[in-house]
């Protein structure tokens, strides 16, 4: 077995030295436990926060200990009746080839209908984040103009497509490369998209959404958030999902500088965590799984092969190497 441990805490941008790759014995399942061979593990932006010691909404990873995160795999051994060898399960013991954990901490999924990797992305945590954030947090309504940042990523690509499918009058996305911008408009049906590296976000957003925006789904923070406040219509709603532009920052962000507009425009700006929205999980799966199956909702995956490449996959995710969900295949 192999596992990835946190070797040291990063300052600013993480490096491969912050991780160690350790070969271990395959563990046995004890009473009430299962042994899972992981097939895919998820690397996610929030893990950058867990590498730091700062208090946050999830406990920091411990230095010298194996890291954690979403994973999907096949049960090899079980000591309980409810989960049997051969079952496919989703759980939180990623960053390792083999996981032993309490049987009540795994969720069985059906490997026959869709690829198992989708349970970490479009039909998993990032999918539910997009669904709950757009519909429940931002209170999306047909006719809204929607702006989403990080639009070519796992969450953002789904937000834009869902808004379109549900009758948005205009969907605008931003992303960090020409190819990603083209993907948004040509493949995913966005009405307009821009590369935030090409020029000031405020100017590019104004050109892409000249009549203003009613919903902003924020994955990025900083300059994007400032631009969205500037372009917001009266009573616009913001779902604040993440702020990846500042995850590696060592200084407080310079933007937004225009927060007083929140008052005059009567904006609703609401942060949220997907973990609070699992009440919507059943509704989410029954609505989104058929859209995925029928090809009405597209999902991309950027798959890196080999557990030993997981640290690099995570570093590349922070640099924008992925289109859609970043995954590691074991
Ligand atoms: P993505 O698939 O979107 O991958 C991260 C992307 O962020 C990269 O591909 C890169 O794309 C972009 N990025 C990196 N640095 C910057 C920067 N400085 N400015 C703008 N964009 C940048 O990841 P996820 O879909 O998993 O997550 C998206 C966001 O949602 C993150 O902020 C994450 O923390 C948050 N999140 C929040 C949850 C919650 O419960 N609130 C749950 C899940 C995710 P590009 O090439 O376009 O720069």
TrEMBL record:
Q: Which organism is it from?
A: Amycolatopsis acidicola
* Classification via Gene3D superfamilies: Medium-chain alcohol dehydrogenases, catalytic domain, NAD(P)-binding Rossmann-like Domain
Q: Per its UniProt record, what CDD domains does this chain match?
A: PGDH
MF-aspect GO terms: oxidoreductase activity, acting on the CH-CH group of donors, NAD or NADP as acceptor
Keywords assigned: Oxidoreductase
Q: Record's SMART domains? A: PKS_ER
Q: Where are the transmembrane segments?
A: none
Query: Which protein are we looking at?
Result: NADP-dependent oxidoreductase
Q: Does the keyword GTP-binding apply?
A: no
Q: Name one Pfam family in it.
A: ADH_N_2
Task: Name the coiled-coil region(s).
Answer: none
What is the top-level taxon of the source organism?
Bacteria
Task: Outline the segment boundaries, as ranges, of region: Disordered.
Answer: 1-18
Enoyl reductase (ER) domain residues: 14-328
- The answer to keyword Metal-binding applying to this record is no
């Amino acid at each position: 077995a192999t596992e990835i441990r946190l070797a040291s805490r990063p300052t600013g941008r993480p490096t491969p030295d912050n991780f160690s790759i350790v070969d271990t014995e395959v563990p046995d399942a004890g009473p009430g436990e299962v042994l899972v061979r992981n097939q895919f593990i998820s690397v996610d932006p929030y893990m950058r926060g867990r590498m730091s010691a700062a208090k946050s909404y999830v406990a920091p990873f411990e230095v010298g200990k194996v890291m954690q995160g979403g994973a999907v795999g096949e049960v090899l051994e079980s000591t309980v009746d409810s989960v049997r060898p051969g079952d496919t399960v989703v759980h939180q013991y990623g960053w390792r080839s083999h996981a032993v954990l309490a049987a009540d901490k795994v969720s069985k999924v059906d490997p026959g209908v869709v690829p198992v990797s989708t349970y970490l992305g479009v039909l998993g945590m990032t999918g539910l984040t997009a669904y709950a954030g757009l519909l429940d947090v931002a209170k999306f309504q047909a006719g809204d103009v929607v702006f989403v940042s990080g639009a070519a990523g796992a969450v953002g690509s789904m937000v834009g497509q869902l808004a379109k499918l549900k009758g948005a009058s205009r969907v605008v996305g931003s992303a960090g490369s020409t190819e990603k911008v083209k993907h948004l408009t040509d493949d995913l049906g966005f009405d307009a998209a821009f590369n935030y590296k090409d020029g000031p976000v405020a100017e590019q957003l104004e050109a892409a959404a000249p009549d203003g925006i009613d919903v902003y789904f924020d994955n990025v923070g900083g300059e994007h958030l400032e631009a969205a406040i500037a372009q917001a219509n009266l009573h616009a709603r913001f779902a604040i999902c993440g702020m990846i532009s500042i995850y590696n920052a060592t200084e407080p962000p310079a933007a937004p500088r225009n927060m007083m507009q929140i008052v005059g425009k009567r904006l609703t700006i609401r942060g949220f965590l997907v973990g609070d929205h699992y009440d919507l999980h059943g509704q989410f799966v029954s609505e989104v799984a058929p859209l995925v199956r029928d090809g009405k909702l597209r999902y991309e995956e950027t798959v890196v092969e080999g557990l030993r490449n997981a640290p690099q996959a995570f570093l590349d995710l922070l640099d924008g190497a992925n289109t859609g969900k970043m995954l590691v295949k074991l």
